[in-house]
Every structure is written in structure tokens, then in C-alpha cells.
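Morning!

As promised:
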Amino acid sequence: MKKILLLLLLTSQIAWTQSKQDSVQFRELANEIMVNGEAYENLRELTQSIGNRISGSVGYDKATVWAEKKLKEAGADKVWLQETFVPVWVRGKETLKLKTQNGKWEDLNFLSLGNSEGTNGKDVEGEVIMVNTLGEFDKLSEKEVKDKIVFFNYRFRQDFITTFDGYSDAVLYRSVAAVKVAEKGGKFAMIRSVSTGVDDVPHTGTMRYNEQIQKIPAIAIGNQTADRLEHLTKSGKIYLKLNSNCGMKEEIINYNVIGEIKGKDDKIIVAGAHLDSWDVGEGAHDDGAGVVQVIEILRTFKKLGIQPNHTLRFICYANEENGARGGEKYAEEAKRKNENHLFALESDAGGFSPRGFSLDMPLNKIKEIQAWKPLFLPYGTYDINKGYGGVDIHPLGRLLQTPLAGLIPDSQRYFDIHHTAADTFDKVNKRELQLGATVMAQLIYMIDKNW
Amino acid sequence: MKKILLLLLLTSQIAWTQSKQDSVQFRELANEIMVNGEAYENLRELTQSIGNRISGSVGYDKATVWAEKKLKEAGADKVWLQETFVPVWVRGKETLKLKTQNGKWEDLNFLSLGNSEGTNGKDVEGEVIMVNTLGEFDKLSEKEVKDKIVFFNYRFRQDFITTFDGYSDAVLYRSVAAVKVAEKGGKFAMIRSVSTGVDDVPHTGTMRYNEQIQKIPAIAIGNQTADRLEHLTKSGKIYLKLNSNCGMKEEIINYNVIGEIKGKDDKIIVAGAHLDSWDVGEGAHDDGAGVVQVIEILRTFKKLGIQPNHTLRFICYANEENGARGGEKYAEEAKRKNENHLFALESDAGGFSPRGFSLDMPLNKIKEIQAWKPLFLPYGTYDINKGYGGVDIHPLGRLLQTPLAGLIPDSQRYFDIHHTAADTFDKVNKRELQLGATVMAQLIYMIDKNW
């Protein structure tokens, strides 16, 4: 009995000492990032000197050179580019005009949805039918839709507390509107933006075609324009005239940019974010924030002289927004080379105050990470539960069964600016951005130490 | 044994049913506030139509009329004004000029600290000594300080994760700088603003005098100007010239504005925030946000037809910023009338995403509220611990032993804009503001039901 008690005491003493050491290391990581952090100034460069950087653009090429330089400056033992073919979607010039029954044509604020075909520079004009839901649309006959323009006036549900739930709910309209309308012979599809905003900012983002169905244009208008059109359609007929030049070009090669700290063994831990963005705004929260956080973790490990057990890879992924080819390519290569990926962490939900991690891994591993909650709590990070890792690391889970985690920042503001011209550097707060990098660095530290 | 088991089963069944009912009520409160909420539009009115509203100003008078009207529109059974004398501090015109040894005078961006005396419109000029800490200052002799201007270059500590900890640490300089410098015969005191900002925005806020020591002016400069002066003092002598007209006027009467929902009994639950602000910016986060949240709770209870057990009072307090007389007066009157105050909740830490409540009450009551955590967690509110309630409700705790609670919003952005010209409506996010009102309404609901 005495021996058992002694053993228990010893075990709990060891656990306490380790947890004490971890909390000291957590504090050191936080001090370095919160006080000497370079993430914010790096983001200023990426967003304001380079700007937006859709796959295949000159902006993406510049971002590639920039990321390679930054990973080297942060102290990577090795930096390399990994090539992947990417789709190239180009917006070009686009106009949308509105007319009421007896009115004159006036310009509206809008964006073509990403990957959408345009009108080839010709005017496409027609009467507008408004529906509030897909259910309403499905009740319309082909005759009612033929040659019409369909306005899907579905509102982002503000009753969801986590805005990603509202996004998952509303994004269906962005995805399927064009196919639905084309099936019934309509001219083009228009959606109320997938947006929590109280403003008139239109939100782009990918839409999907069905190869068996005619590819008609799909566009989005901001909430205020949508409110106005909703009002107008109730008091009479309205007409829209779209002229757009967007469309897909030939695929070309872009690059994942990868930096590495060599570990004591060859097992690999990944921290990743995507370097591409949509073609409007500056891609500041989506996902410049994630990119500079990933680079910041590398810099911090090097600055503090932390020698990891495993090899740490910091990946700036290509083409998350309209193809997800970068993430796919990385995982395929990892599988081909038979690399052992212990863990992958992604930041692609904005540079806001962190609140947790969503874990896509077996339950025993989830429980192991949940046991570290007391260490994370002083950093405002408490929501550590089963969930989705992220688009770019997802193929690692699928092909290599790698345990995945996604940073969960506060979600309240994200869908005000997501995929818009308003996703700019000034929307990012320095401390929030740094705190996100801090908890990511802490999680990488714990995984490296314990797995 | 069977009886005990049955009793246990019954008890747990009742607990489960109640918790289920509570979570349904939580959801209804959230739906009303997140979907139909009026807090954001009310804040737009208060900040953009009325603007800043320091005690004794025309702005405060307008805000009083506005709050009375809003509480009535929200459905209060009764609305009244409670008078209190308040200090009147007026800024007037102020300029600060800088000169290096061989340079010309140039204007600097700055603010006199609140309650500070000015220079009576005369130029007060002198050489600048910079110290980084009070410790450094204390080592200076009277001779070294006499007729000088002392620049306290103390930086906000960014290593604190909760910025209120950084504020508590740095605010000492704002409070004591003038007295310290006056004791050694300096001309005026200047501080690096108590600010997390990466910008040049100067932050005002109260300073204190000692009646036994000469009242010299105290001013604040923004972080960028402070960085520049720090650099300049290292390469040579610099001089400042202050001309200001600020100072205290005669006290006058202002009003707390109080709305009430009558309960089944006369016991009282308070939700409060302060209606006054500093004299720059719009007082949007500080504390327009709190005011509109408090009004929103009233509106929501009435809209949902919730008949409270106890009387609910919604208080827009006068004079929090530079005297705290409104809170003092309310508590004194409550004591005089022998009112029974069950609980008071304050929102005065910005309209950001809520994270918890800090509880200033006996341990058994803290534990009772902590037991409700699972109900609050879906609303991102997890940090429910012992702490400070708030300036305006504090006297209720002191005089009536009322249990107190303060809303804890995410603190990362608050001290970028606190007490500045940049504390404007556009800094407040609609969903964050509403979510704060939601969890406050939920807590009021639980207290009313259970206490």
C-alpha cells in the first residue's frame, strides 16, 4: 500500500512538473510572438505591397517569391517550391444594369462568382424572378423560368452563433444557383451574397457547374442592393442586363512554398495556410493571416532555439480558393514518398482572436489534446473538440490518415468581409493575429513533444 | 434503497427538464437579439447623431433625452431620471509644439488628460527629460527635474493576454505623472498613451491631483509620436511648448436614466452601463455599446413577454468617466430607501464578442453561476470566475452587499481605441454587440429565475 501511494505521488509529481514546464514554454512562445512578433508587418507587406493573388495571377507569382524569402529569413533549414497545375479563372471587365418597368438603366454593384462563365462581352438581358429559397425555386415550372434571370434572395441566418454554421447553410445557393437556373432555361443566376454584413459589399467565391448542363453566368450582389431589389420586385417587374468577360483559361503551374525545420527524426508535423486569395481586396483575413501565422511559428521556434523532435513543415499552399490543388498535390507527393505525417494544423478562418481547435482525428487523440486544455485556457483557447481540419490539409487525412486540426478564431466578423474587396489589411488587429499564431505554436510544441 | 434511487432519478429528471427549458429560453433570447436586435441601430443613433457626451456637456443632455425615449420605446413599465451632481471638465483649445536643438517649432498630435489643469492659454515651454519607468524618475533629483517637462515613456505591456491586465499596469502613469513631476518642480508631465495601438492616436482618461501639491498639466501622446520623441531624445535635447485651456468648472446636475420592468416582488436586479463618455470620438465601445445592450435586454424581455419574478432595472449611469458620481448616487438612494438589490450586472468593457462574466460575490453564489456554464458555452461564454464587477455597480456592492457581475468581452482590440477620437461607431461589429447583449439577457434570466 505504501509503495502504491508513493508511486501515485511520484506520478502526480512528474505530471505536475511536466505541466509546469509546458506552461513556462507556453509563456515563452507567447512572449516572443506578442512582444517581438513579425506576423503583422509581414501581413502588411503581403496585402499592401502584393495585394490579391488568385491562382495563375502575377500577384500569386509575387507572393511565391515573397513567401520563399520570408521562410528563409524566419530561419528555415530548407525552403522549396512544389509545383502543381492550377485552374486559371479571370474576371475581366463586368457590368450589371438594372431597370424598372418605366425606369432607365442604372449600374449595380456586384461580382461574378468565382469560376463562373461570363457573357463573352455581350449584353444578356431579361426579366427578374425572385425566390427566397430553393424550395420556392423548385416549384417554378420550366416555362416560368425560361429566358428569365433568377434572383435567389436567401439570407444568411444570423441566429447561428458560429457564423460558419450560417455559411454552411447559405453557401449552397452560391454553389448550385447557376446549374439550377440553367436546368430550367434561365439566362443567368444571381444570389444575395453569402454575407453577415450590414453593408453593400458583394461576396465572390466558387460556384460549380455540371458538365451535362449549359454553363450560364452566376453573380452576387451585396445585402443592401439585395434589399432594394427585394423591395422593387414586390411593386413591379424589374430587368437586369449583365455584360461580363470572366471565364476559365488554360491551366498553368503554380507552387506550394514549403519551409522546414529538421527534427531529430523524419516524422513530419505540418502547419499550413493558403497563399492564394480571391481576385478582389487583399486576401488579408483569407488567408494572408494564416500564412503569416505559419511563418511566425517557424520564426519563433528558431528564435527561441527550440529543437523539435520531429521535422516541422510550414506550408504556404497554392490554389485553395478555386481548386484546392495545392493541398492535394502536397498529400499525393507525401504518399508517393511514403512520408510519415504525424499531425497537420491549418489556419484558414481569419486572423481573429483564437477560441479553440477543431480536431479531425481518432477519439483517443482528441482526448489527449483535450487534456491540455488547462494550458491553453490562459490564452483564451477553450473550444477543443471534434471537427473539420481544413481544405488544404484534408487530403493528408484522406490519403495518409494524418490527424488534422484547424484553428478556430472568433467567427463573428469573418463573413462580413470573406471573399470581398473589403478583406483588407486594416481589418486585421495585430494582437488578435499574434494570439492566433501563439496558440498554434503552443499546439505544435505539444504535439512535437508528446507524439 | 429503492426509495432513494427513485428520489435520485426524479431529482436528476427535474434537473434535466429545467436545464432543457433553460436552454430553450436561452435560444429564444438569442434568436430575438441576433435576428431582430435593435442595439446596433440604437448605437448608430447615440454615436452618430449625438456623438460624445462628457458629464456636463450638451451631448450628455441630448443623450439623457435619447435614453429616456429609448427605454420607453423598449417597453419599460416606468422610466425616470435620478439627479446627481457631476464634475464638469472642459478641454477647450490646446496645442503642443516640438523643437529640436536647431529645429523649428512643429505641431504634435496629443490630448490633455481628463481632469487636468491647462496652461490658462499661456505658452509653457521647457526642455524634455525622458524616463521609461517611475523607478527611473524616482532616481532623478529635484534639481534635474526643476522647470523641465517629464516624458514618461512607459509602454503598454503586450505580453499580457488579457489587455485589462496591461491597462492596470500602465494606467498608473496616467494617474500619478502630474503629481510626481510637480513634487520635483517640473513644468508639466507627458505620458506615452495607455494604448495597445500601432497608430498615433492619443488616449485621454482621468488623472489625479493631490490637493497638497501644485496642479500642473498632464498630457498624452500616441505611440508613434512617442517612438519618435524617444528616438529624438537619444540624439540631442528636445523642447516642448504647451498651450491649453482645459480645467474644472463648477459642478452641475446630470441624470442617471432608469427604466424598469415591474416584477412579482420588489427585489431588484440591475443591468447597467454608462451613458457619459470622454469628450473625443463617439464613445462607441466605451460605453455606448453597454448602454444599447442594456436597453436591448429590456426590449427583448418585453418582446418575448417574459414576466420576471423580480423587478428589473436598466440603468444608464451618469459620469462614470471622470467622477463615478452616477453609480454612487444610485447606490446611496437604494440604501436610503432600503431597497433589496439581488444582483447587478454591468457592461463597460467594449461591445466585442463575449467570453464570460467576472463575479464579485461570495463563493457559494459564484459556484451557483458556474454551474450554468454548459448553458452559456454554445454562446462562446466560458470564462465565469471571481473578478471585478464594474465602476458603476461597485457602490451597490459596498453599500448593500449586492452580488455583482461584469460582462467580459474579448479584450484584444479595446485599448487600441479606448478614450480616443477613434472610438467610433464603425469600430463596433453588429453581431459581436448583439452577442454580448444575448449573454447578458441570459444571465439576467437565470438570476431572476433562481435567486
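Chain A has 14 helices and 16 strands.

Hope this helps with the figure draft.
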